[in-house]
Automatic annotation (TrEMBL):
It comes from the Bacteria. The keyword Magnesium applies. Mg(2+) 1 binds at E89, D108, L110. Homotetramer. This is Fructose-1,6-bisphosphatase class 1. It catalyses: beta-D-fructose 1,6-bisphosphate + H2O = beta-D-fructose 6-phosphate + phosphate. It is found in: Cytoplasm. It is an enzyme of class 3 (hydrolase). One of its GO terms (biological process) is sucrose biosynthetic process. The gene is fbp. Keywords: Carbohydrate metabolism, Cytoplasm, Hydrolase, Magnesium, Metal-binding. The keyword Transmembrane helix does not apply.
Length: 325
């Protein structure tokens, strides 16, 4: 019989000499996600689709399910004594939890908000950091991605999947009908070469020269300099794009563009880019902001945005080289 999440955590923590408190934080995150999954599944039947009539600190419209998912995670994590504090894409500033807790949890409660009302895959993304000693403040959270002790996502797609790393490879679980996550895949590896890319092509006129140049090379197909034909996918849920890349390779770009001068990109470093970059690296892929390894970027703010290039290593390296030329 396949291992459930509690079985896996018990064995994995012991094998890698990781503290049981870290396992309890992961369990709380996943308990919240099981509840979010149940609500996503019933959608209109419980009147939870549509706008919440509010906005978040980044000026984005909040959907009812964004708010429900956020409140579910905050409520469950605040009750875990191992959690010192939380930071969420949907909260203005960090939320203090338990003074004696050793961990900080950062999350995008429901990634892919534009897909909520149209029944396309969405997900919860999470990142776990050790709390530095001293009193809790915003600076406690501003650790580079390489300091993450765990990260993962729960993808609410045709199946609800949990993809998790505690820094020793990645493990995929599928939610069964008894609301248990059951291990279904160990250590998927992202092939270094690919012929599939993901980018929002409608922003082409705003891109900088290296991205313009790169995408035109791909579109030229097997008669161009890359010598092969490329396929394109764009789900508009980063969590779903990263899952596809983990399963079969590919490259994902959300580059800096000219729409908002001074802003480095759309996606958030702490809630999206860092946790997904750790997973991608654990699967043998690469993740950068086109110049620097994502996990080495020193964060300056909780809601900081960043350009993202991640996926199959050869392709990410090729794009980085274009930006340095
Ligand atoms: P969200 O957290 O508000 O859902 O925004 C992030 C999402 C990513 O999941 C996705 O890659 C991107 O925004 C899609 O952007 P676009 O609307 O340009 O297609
Ligand atoms: Mg998001």
């Amino acid at each position: 019989m396949s291992a459930t999440l509690p079985d896996f955590l018990h064995q994995h923590l012991a094998e890698h000499h990781l503290p049981p408190a870290l396992g309890s934080v992961i369990s709380s995150i996943c308990q919240a996600c099981v509840s979010i999954s149940a609500q996503v599944r019933v959608g209109a039947l419980s009147g939870i689709l549509g706008s919440a009539g509010s906005g978040n600190i980044q000026g984005e419209e909040q959907k009812k399910l964004d708010v429900i998912a956020n409140n579910t995670l905050v409520g469950i994590l605040q009750q875990n004594p191992a959690v010192a504090g939380l930071a969420s894409e949907e909260e203005d500033s960090f939320v203090a939890a338990n003074a004696d807790g050793g961990y900080l949890v950062l999350f995008d409660p429901l990634d892919g908000s534009s897909n909520i009302d149209v029944n396309i895959s969405i997900g919860t993304i999470f990142s776990v950091l050790a709390k530095p000693s001293g009193s809790l403040n915003t600076a406690s959270f501003l650790q580079p991605g390489r300091a993450q002790v765990a990260s993962g996502y729960v993808l609410y797609g045709p199946q609800t999947l949990l993809v998790l790393t505690l820094g020793h490879g990645i493990t995929v679980f599928t939610l069964n009908n008894e609301h248990q996550f059951v291990l279904t895949q160990s250590n998927p590896i992202i092939p270094p070469a690919t012929q599939e890319f993901a980018i929002n092509m409608s922003n082409q006129r705003h891109w900088q020269a290296p991205v313009q140049d790169y995408i035109s090379e791909l579109l030229a197909g097997d008669t161009g300099v890359r010598g092969k034909n490329y396929n394109m996918r764009w789900v508009a849920s980063m969590v779903a794009e990263v899952h596809r890349i983990l399963m079969r390779g590919g490259v994902f770009l959300y580059p800096q563009d000219a729409r908002e001068p001074g802003k480095p990109g759309k996606l958030r470093l702490m809630y999206e880019a860092n946790p997904l970059s750790l997973l991608v690296e654990q699967a043998g892929g690469a993740a950068t902001n086109a110049h620097t390894r994502m996990l080495d970027i020193q964060p300056e703010g909780l809601h900081q945005r960043v350009a993202v290039v991640l996926g199959s290593k050869n392709e990410v390296d090729y794009i980085s080289a274009k930006h340095q030329a």
